[in-house]
Each structure stands twice: as C-alpha cells, then as structure tokens.
Fold J domain-containing protein.
Amino acid sequence: MGQKFQYDESGSTFFYFILSFLALILIPATFYFWPKKKSEDPRKSKEECHCEGCCKKRVIIANADPYKNVKTLAVKCSIIFGWALLIFLTYKVSQFDYEMSNFDPYEILGVPLGASKSEVKRAYHKQSIVLHPDKETGDEKAFVKLTKAYKALTDDDARKNWEKYGNPDGPSAMSFGIALPAWIVEKENSVWVLGLYALVFMVALPITVGTWWYRSIRFSGDKVLLDTTQLYFYFFHKTPNMALKRVIMILAASLEFDKRHNSQVIERPTDNEEVPSLIKLLPHLNEKCKEIPLCRLYSVKTRALIHAHLSRLPLNPHTLEKDRQFVLRKAPYLVQEMVSVVNQLIMLAYAGRISASKLPSIETIENCMKLAPMLIQGLWEFKSPLLQLPHLTEDNLKYFVNKKRYIKNLQQFAKLPNEESRSLLRDFSEQEYDDVIKVLGKMPLIDFSFKVEVVDDENTNVVTAGAIVTVTVNLVRRSMRELFGDLTAVEKQNIKENTEEKQADENADNNDQKENVQPVAKKPVWLKSKSHKGKPKSKSSKSKPVIGVMKQAATTNAKETKDPQNNAKPIMKESNDSDADESSAESDNEIAPEEDRTTDDERKNNSSVEDDDMEWEKFQQKINKREKLEGRSKTSHSVHCPSYPEDKQEYWWTYICDRKSQTLLTAPFHVTNLVDHQEVQLKFTAPRWPGVFTFTVCLRSDSYMGMDQQLDLKLDVKEAPAVPTEHPQWDISESEEEHQEEKNNESEFTTDSEMSDAEK
C-alpha cells in the first residue's frame, strides 16, 4: 500500500485546520475579554464620600476612557462573529464527514443486498428519470451519486472491490492531506504569496518589534524616562542639601512634561494668556530662574500648576485643569524615582565613588518623601492635616483651637466624643458631618514597632562592633474609627476580636506554607567546601569597614524583605531568649546519644554537616523572599484624595537614619501591600567601636499628611571578641587594601557619651 501527499483540493482539511485554530483562540478570548458588568454594592455607595471633590473625581474617572463603550461594543461584536464563524465551520465539517461515510450503493439505489443486475438496472432507470439534470426535478449532485452506485454494482470487479474493501476502486494508497488549499502552491499565485510573506515577516514584524523596543528602552521600570532620571542625578548631586521648594522645581522640570519628549503633552494657544495670569497669583514661584531646564516654558508652566494645586486655586476646567490632572497622574512615579536617585547617590558616596562633600543629607530625601502626600492631598507642608477631611476649610479651623481645647491632628479629633466633635462642626449639615466621620474612620492608624537582632551570629541579642544588624519592622494597619470616642465597649471588643481573628488566620496560613515546603536534597558544592575550612562561625570577629558594609547591606536590603505570609513568628520590641534556649536544649538532647558513640573526628564532621544544613536553609529562604518580592502586590487601601484624579492606594516608606550625623543607614523600603499586617527587614552595619548609639527608625506615608512616625533605636554595641590565634590553620590574614580601606573610611557615628563630652 503506497503513500501519497497532496494539497487540499476540496478544502475539507483546510476547514479542519481553521476550525481548530479558531477554537483555540476563541474559547480563552471569550473567557478573558467578554465585558463583565460589575454589580454595584449598595453598601459601597453609602460608605463613599459625597463631597464636591469626590463627586467630580468619580466623574473624571468614569470619563477617563471616552472610547470605553465603543471598545466594549467592538469586543462583543468580534466575539459574537467568531462564534458564528465557528458554528458555520463546524456545520461544514460535519457535512463533509456525512458525505464521505454515507456511500452505500444498495441504499442509494434502493435495492436489497445481493440484488441481481436486472434489479439494479430497473432501479437505476427509475431514479435517473427523476434525478437527471435535464429534468425539472433533476439534482446533479444526487444523479452523480446514483451513477457511481450503479457502476459499482453492475461492474463485477467494482462490485467485488466494494464488498471486500468498501471502495469500488479497490484498495487505495494512504493519503496525507496538507491543510492548505492547492492554490497557494500554484505557479501563477507564487508572486502574491511571496509578496504577502515578505510584507508580514520582513516589513511589518521588524517594524513592530523595533517600535516596541525603541519605546521600552526610553523608560525605567517605574514608567519614568531615563533622561529624567539623569536629570535628577545631576541636580541632587549638584545640591546635596535641597529645600522642599527646590525639589518642586526639579519635579516640574521632568521631561515627562516636555512636548519634545512626551507626545501626550498638549500645548494650547491659550497658555500664552492663562499661564502668565496664573503666575501673578502665585508668590515665591521663582519664575525668573535662569537655570536650564528650570527656566524653560514647560517647566515654569508645570511649576505654576503644582503651586496652584497645593494652594487649591480653581483653574479653567477645559484647559489648565486638564493639564493639572496630567501632571498629578505622573507625579507619584516621579517622586518615587527621586527617592531612589537620592538613595543611590548616598550609596555611591559611602562607596567612595563621589566626594563626601556631595553626600545628600537625610533632609533632602525626606523632602522628596514629604512632597508625595502634599501632591496627593493638595496641601502645603505647613497647612493643618485636618484640611484633608471633606468640607473642612480654613474658616472651620478656628473652632479647633481655643482656650478649652487645642486639636492639631487627626488622631486628637478622632478621640473626641460624638457630641463634642459635632459641636466643632456645628455649621455642617448632617450629610456633610457624616462624610467627615466616614472619611476619618477609614484613615489609617498604624501600630509601629521593631525588633533588633544579629541574625547570623551565635548570640542574636548581642550587637558587636562591625556586625550586620537586622531590624525587623512590624506594621499593623488599623482604622482611625477605633479611636472614636462614641464607640461602645461592645464595638471596641468586636473590633479587637476581628483583628485577632485576622492575625490568627495569617499565622495558620503561614504554618501551612511552612509545612508544604519540600526539603532540598542536595547542597551546592561551594557550600560544602566552604564549611570544611575551619573558620570561626561568628561574623562579628572580623570587622569590615563601616562605609563599605553599609553600602552592601543597604543594597541587598530592598531585595531581602521578610514577607509576613512566610513568617509565623511574632515580632516584639522586647527581646526574649527563652525560645532560643529551649530550642538549643532540645537540639543538644537529640544529638547527645550520638556524641557518646562517635569519635572526635566524627563529631566535627556531624557539626559541619549541621552547619551546612542551616546555611543552606537560610540561602533557600533568601531566594524565596526575593521571588515573593518581585511579585509584590500594590493594592492596600484606597486614599481619600479628591484633588487627585485617579484612585490612590496607601503606600509607606520605612528606613533607619542617624539624626546626629544626618546620614541614612538603610535604603528606604517602599511598602505597597500593607492591608492588615506587614513585616520588613532593614539591615545596616553596627559602628566599629563599642558604645551606646541612638538611631531613628522612621515611617512615612506617601498619601496622608500627619501620619509619619519615628522611634528611637538605642544600640548598645559591645566589643567584638578577639580572634583565636591557637589554630594556625585558620586563615585570618587581611590584604593591604583592606587595611588601607579601614584607615581611610572613618565612621561618622557618634556615641551619646562622646556627644555629652563634646558639649561640656
């Protein structure tokens, strides 16, 4: 039996190919792209703020995509057309199968099995009179089928072949059909086929990939132009101690607002009249600055829009108001890029890449952080945080400050009883007062604490000179409603129980995840070889230069974040050694019988294997933390910000600094997924000499003003233990470069005792 390859002449196999290809695309496309109508929760509308700013913001968000309905209709029509085409192709394919499998000459002629030739002829003549194409009742397709059945039963060889092989022509060759129509390989169509191939794969595809690549390489990972990042590097390196208004000027000079770098920027002829009029209303704008690019028109216009936004000045809704919204949409990404740039400059200064005189101060990076909530809430830094509440104006603040009371922040206002807070807002209607209470109750109340330890040392609670200190920051997010003075004891107890239930569920999930972790069978060769060198286990015995290790710890800090879902151990400010003592005692009891039966060499081997296991587990945990960090969520809680044209989520910065020397010890970690509870690890290098040092652990909000917190971190640094010298096999020699680096890099840390002596 031979084989034969042929292109599809009738089109049946091509229909099979199109049918399978269409079904493969259409089914998942319908599931993912079919517009789903979201059911509105009636409770959500009751909890929403109905102030004028929030109502306008909802309209802006609804109209942000003017072609949304057209896109939805186009998607629906495309999916419906695809399913109609799929049903049609399915019908065509079913007809092909029926015609190919329904050829039975006896059934077509209407004669019984084994009928004679005369009976076959009579049946043929009877039906041919009716089905002949020349007759009025003729059917050409049925007549051809009838003729084929007649020939199959009147020819002896054809009849035998059909009865034996099911085919009048006998055994046929195995045929492989190529699911492409035959006209594709025809000679007269070759030019068109090659032209289409060249157009798709040699013109359209390279242009598409090149356009995408050109656009992507111009931006960083945070949707910021690389040219803008270079601009930030230049200005922050030029001005290490930068004031807040100077930061606003640098932000306004971002190239995202320049028409030449961003095609989304709209320049109108009316700007020549409206922008100068706006500048006259804004003092301290410094529009006469001659510094490039701060003096360019786009920078001056953007700066004027930012100042008008912070001063809450009304703008033309058809021109400058749209430009203000465009600037605010870009601002959070640009501020975060500023913080990142300043932090990189600090790390470069620690590494000796730039001059120490160009080291940005802690005030510079904090001014960048202050700018974020100012832009989100539309308030200057010196304004009262109470103005973040709806309907509240400067005129209402006079009731908050008098001889009886002095309320200056949101927490104090939330603690007032309902009658007293209502009396302060007696000019408000019931609806306006309800909006104030709803917004205030949803604002964050953060429980901020930390725990200090030296993770890789034998005694985790003792900090030695030059050791890597790990500060685990614990953040618990609650609502301001818990401070309300009108809450009953039952309501407070319910809130407390709900919080405890959430934490218990989180701990249960963490335990389940730990149980599901599969052990690693093999360890890398480099880890095994490293464990047999006989070096001491304590890392604090050999101090590294402070500046160099600070750079290394701060660089790796952002990658090695402790996820709360992967850690079931609670974090407390006070250290407790009982758990560590119990675990060590249990481990000693487990290996005690084994030590009785082993020699000294075997005991050393067992301890080295256990050390390898511990080191390898820590290595795997670091990898898991990095993988989880890359897929970190950016959804927490919505922020009440009527002046910001988009939905904003609560984000936070946490870091450690030294206020006395005005230096940054750890890179600011951006917390973007604080829903209920979050833990963050911050690492830095302890000072190189013993003493009591006071640092500051800071928490800053990028969405609300008046929510920042800071805690003092007192570090009692002990002297590092002396390196044993009775073991000559330990290689503890240091290179000349390391000695020189230790001499050149003097620590900027100062102890409390030294400061007091200097003051005397």
